[in-house]
Design a protein that fits this description.
Elements: E1 4-11, E2 15-17, H1 34-38, E3 41-47, H2 48-59, E4 73-77, E5 89-91, H3 95-104, E6 109-114, H4 116-124, E7 130-136, E8 144-145, E9 155-163, E10 169-176
Parallel strand pairs: 1-6, 1-7, 3-4, 3-6, 4-5
Antiparallel strand pairs: 2-8, 7-10, 9-10
């Protein structure tokens, strides 16, 4: 079965966006393990807001969501969108059942790319297999937190850690469901 990997940048105080939705605090001066990660995946799960932001960025950057990212199947989870770009798949009904079905298909691992609500739903359903956090050495003080309140504890096992001269720390954990 394919793994669902939540992979994203987070501040040391646990935010994925600043108070105005900004992510200008993310380091882009080097790879930080992305190319190695890209070799593991062939699909992404993305929520509506993240999809719209990524699409806007890609439209002005030669169609790339992230420079160097290979072509992947985008699964867009939204109850409000009526259509998505060519090649993407819109999932608007029973997102948890659809995510389970996609995970059972043959292929490489899947990147849970973004969306706080989508992340919370996937975590609550026990569908996330790994967390890959790029912890940036900054305290924003406010913004959008990575994790919302949940009524369960999630046990993690450290798989890998790497520190960079910039102060960024990459942490990979498996999720024990």
């Amino acid at each position: 079965m394919r793994k669902l990997i939540l992979g994203l940048a987070v501040t040391l105080d646990g935010y994925i966006e600043g108070p105005n939705g900004e992510y200008d605090w993310c380091f882009t001066d080097q790879d930080y393990g992305l190319n190695e990660f890209f070799n593991r995946i062939d699909a992404i799960f993305i929520g509506r807001k993240s999809y719209e932001i990524a699409k806007q960025y890609a439209d002005s950057n030669n169609g790339e969501i992230i420079p160097g990212m290979p072509e992947v199947t985008e699964y867009v989870f939204s109850k409000t969108l009526k259509s998505v770009k060519d090649g993407a798949v819109l999932i608007s009904n029973d997102s948890i059942a659809e995510a389970r079905r996609i995970k059972e298909q043959p292929g490489k691992d899947i990147w849970l790319y973004g969306g706080a609500l989508l992340t919370a739903a996937m975590m609550k359903a026990g569908l996330v297999d790994e967390l890959w956090m790029s912890v940036h050495p900054i305290l924003l003080g406010s913004g959008k937190p990575l994790f919302q309140e949940q009524n369960i504890r999630t046990q993690l096992t450290l798989l890998d850690s790497k520190t960079y001269d910039s102060g960024l720390v990459s942490l990979r954990y498996s999720v024990r469901n």
